[in-house]
Amino acid sequence: MNARTSALDSPVFGVDIQSGDIRGDAPSYALVVFDGESVERDVVSHRKLRRRIESDEPAIVATDNAYELAADKDDLVRFLRSLPHGTSLVQVTGDERPEPLSRVASRHGVPYGKKPMKEAEASARLAAANVGYEVSAFTDTTTVKVSRGRSTGKGGWSQDRYTRRIHGNVKRRTREVESELEDAGLDFEVDITEKYGGYQNAVFSVAARPQDIPVTAHRSGDTRVEIERERRDGIEFEPLVKRRDRVIVGIDPGTTTAAAVVGLDGSVFDVHSTRTADSAELTEWLIERGRPVIVAADVTPMPETVEKFRRSFDAAGWTPTSDLPVDEKLHRTREEAYDNDHERDALAAALFAVDDHADQFERIGAKTPAGIDRAEVIARVVADEQSVEGALSALTDNTGEEEEESGPEPRELTDDEKRIRDLESQVDRLRDHVDDLKADLDEKDDEIEDLEAELSDARREERLEARRDREVTRIRRENKRLERERDEAQETVEELEEKLARLKTLWKLDHDNFADVSEGRDLVPVKVIEQFTKRAIRHADEQYGLAAGDVVYLRDASGAGQSTAELLADVEPKVILRSGGLSDVADEVLFEHDIPVGPAEDVAMQEVDELAVAREGDVEAVIDDWEDRAEQRERQQTEAMVDEIISEHRASGAE
Q1: Using CA atoms in the order 193, 195, 197, 203, what is the torsion angle rounded to 10 degrees?
Q2: Distances (CA, A) of 558 to 555, 573, 586, 622
Q3: What is the pTM of this model?
Q4: pLDDT of 514 higher than 70
Q5: How far apart, in whole angstroms, are the C-alpha atoms of residue 22 and residue 26?
Q6: What is the DSSP letter of 30?
């Protein structure tokens, strides 16, 4: 047996059925947990075994018969799918045609007993030594599917926005997965189904196992990531180590250590060289390529380093009678490939050892009967120094013991048992048919989902078309409104242009009672208010502004009340020219605010619409006249107030 040099990185579970049957109700199992140094033993139910595997995540679950863990092929596939990504199922007795566990254990020097716990321990130790075949129902290609985590629903006011958000998140998660796979240097292909707003799903075919992929299965909000290995057509058995059973090894020690592995027939399997002094690494490399019968060197005596390797493998040694000359080594390895002189020397040592033992191997082969492993006989004769007859006898005895252990031939089934077997076969076929129907149903569901998505897309397009029609109608209405505003604006411009022309005419007037502005005559602008009302005052203010010191012309001064008069008084005009009579209330308010008021007929004015000009001398004359009247009015008010005081005094005296 090739024992490992240290404790295992992850434990190995050895399993053998203790009682019952997997096809029954409650099978129990002998469980051995082996970590390379210590052994833990337990008896567990099938359900507890599955929980232990899930929680402990062993590197290997080892058994002598995979169908002790599953009732049939489909059940075995389900069991393999349930294993953690880093856990493999190993059948230590071989592939589809397994050997008895006792024979395999004897070959590799592993303790064996017929009790289930002993068989479970033997399975664990054999698997830990890389003996056995991995049971696989899946390829090394893994499917990673990114899809919607929730349904897009049946519609509603926000259906489009909701669908767009989900598909957008699927697209974002797809790009994240793609980036992670690229960063890990993995080869992959991706098939993307694009939908409104992003992706409906993306399926990655990654050339790696799930444990080698930096993406985990999960469901979060709008997205879901599923990871599943691609299923094989059937169940396959792959050897844990692709080893050539019995080999001859040549080693060249030194600063650079080289090793060559050659078959018993002289075929070269592999060469290797390393500059490290780690003998354990080279030992592992040799273990993976076979079990050495002879360890050879190209010099004599055998170097101590080579001798250590020979002893570790319990192999025979070979050295030449004298150091091999370089020209002979070159000639013997002329047809083989190697990278440096060290690999050449190791390869030459192995090939010369084959040449030296060729006749012995031939004689042993001639004496070995059919059905006996010739390489095993050679190993016993050369390495263990047994005689050919002794080796054959030992191997024959082992075969006889194994045949006895296999038990008697199975008896013929009764009619009821045959009926049960047929019914079980029928049940298996029906289960397969149900699985096929479920697969068809899943395909139909996917097809329905795709059709619903297409229908949703079509409805969305119809809604978009209706929106476009409504938008076109709205734009046309808006266009007509803007055209009307344009026409109105053009009419206003025309009116303003006419008014401007009249204003220019006004400024150019040459009238006997009016001096031309261009000749420097004294004219003042007059701001016209159509009526003495609040509305008219505000309108004039909006049109050309009213400010303190303006000359204001009231075209109709009648009817104003106190508040209207106060509104105009707040402007503080220089003078108010009026047409028509002014109410006593308004006259009193304006007088109290010292605002001159005079008749418009006393001033020569020239009007154009709301604007006018007047002779400044006439305006000043109106102001002077008002000031005289105001002074007289104040005297009268004073005299009246004095008379009133005297009258009140006399009245109080008379009393």
Answers
A1: -20
A2: 9, 18, 9, 19
A3: 0.41
A4: no
A5: 7
A6: E
